[in-house]
Design a protein that fits this description.
It is a single chain. The chain has helices at 5-11, 17-25, 116-123, 143-151, 191-198, 229-239, and strands at 3-4, 29-31, 34-35, 42-43, 49-51, 54-55, 63-68, 97-98, 106-113, 131-138, 154-155, 158-159, 164-171, 177-184, 203-211, 214-215, 224-226. The chain is of the alpha+beta class and 240 residues long. Helix content is 22%, strand content 30%. Strands 7, 8, 9, 10, 13, 14, 15, 16 and 17 form a nine-stranded mixed sheet that branches. Strands 3-2-5-6 form a four-stranded antiparallel sheet. Strands 1-4 form a two-stranded antiparallel ribbon. It folds into three domains: 3-55, Structural Genomics Hypothetical 15.5 Kd Protein In mrcA-pckA Intergenic Region, Chain A (Roll); 63-126 and 216-239, Pseudouridine synthase I, catalytic domain, N-terminal subdomain (Alpha-Beta Plaits, 2-Layer Sandwich); 131-211, Alpha-Beta Plaits, CATH 3.30.70.1560. It has six helices and 17 strands.
Length: 240
């Protein structure tokens, strides 16, 4: 059965579907020896697809949960030679890449896969998969001060979806800080930090404790584990 070219590239583990579209538009993809730049081009099972002259080979689909440490770039390469998340997967034959991103100074749950379609499902804003964060913030917010987050705070001119938020602990000493749990399903750039800053409580330290049903229980920073078939199926079910 014919499939769209960008889907074939994503399933081969070369890139996410979005990146595959960029490769096609840039003229870096050939089908049966001819450059194809039209998105949505249909290819048959016997067609020979190559990216930058390298033929595609169907990789086994892999799904991992990484406990990303702080001080690691959520990328497959870095031009400043800093540590990237793929450095933890040097013993994995398939070329996995991160689903979404966590900031350099943010730790926590990060899915790694070579399934482009799955990655797109996990990242697309229309799919409401909860991500739970724990933040250490400056100041001690009251429930009333956090209420705008529950109602949908406005950030960068955009009203965000309502979040679940609660204060876990308060340090009333000299530093006056609090630990706050926040659950959202969107994934905009620096979103959590911007949300807390908007209500007057800048983030000092941030960790993503859970991605949907996936938690970091039993894991340490730098650890990764394979997702079970049931976990992958559950994530797809939540997205669909």
């Amino acid at each position: 059965m014919a499939e769209r070219l960008q889907k074939v590239i994503a399933h081969a583990g070369v890139a996410s579907r979005r990146h595959a579209e960029e490769l096609i538009s840039a003229g870096q993809v050939t089908v049966n020896g001819s450059v194809v730049t039209t998105l949505g081009t249909q290819v048959e099972p016997g067609d020979q697809v190559a990216v930058n002259g390298v033929p595609l080979t169907k990789e086994k689909l892999q799904y991992f949960l990484l406990y990303k440490p702080r001080g690691v770039i959520t990328a497959v390469t870095d031009n400043k030679n800093r540590k990237v998340v793929t450095d933890f997967f040097e013993d994995v034959r398939e070329r996995v890449y991160p689903v979404g991103r966590l900031d350099y100074d943010t730790s926590g749950a990060l899915i790694m896969t070579n399934d482009g379609e799955f990655a797109n499902m996990m990242m697309h804003p229309r799919y409401h998969i909860d991500k739970r964060y724990v933040a250490k913030v400056e100041g001690i917010p009251t429930n009333l001060q956090l209420q705008p987050l529950r109602e949908g705070v406005r950030v960068d001119g955009r009203k965000l979806a309502p979040a679940k938020v609660k204060v876990l602990s308060r340090d009333n000493g000299g530093k006056r800080t609090a630990i706050v749990e926040l659950t959202i399903h969107q994934g905009l750039n620096h979103q959590v930090k911007k949300m807390f800053k908007q209500v007057g409580f800048p983030v000092i330290k941030l960790a993503r404790e859970a991605f949907g049903p996936l938690t970091l229980d039993g894991m340490s920073a730098g650890d990764y584990r394979k997702l079970t078939h049931q976990e992958v199926a559950r994530l797809k079910e939540m997205a669909e």
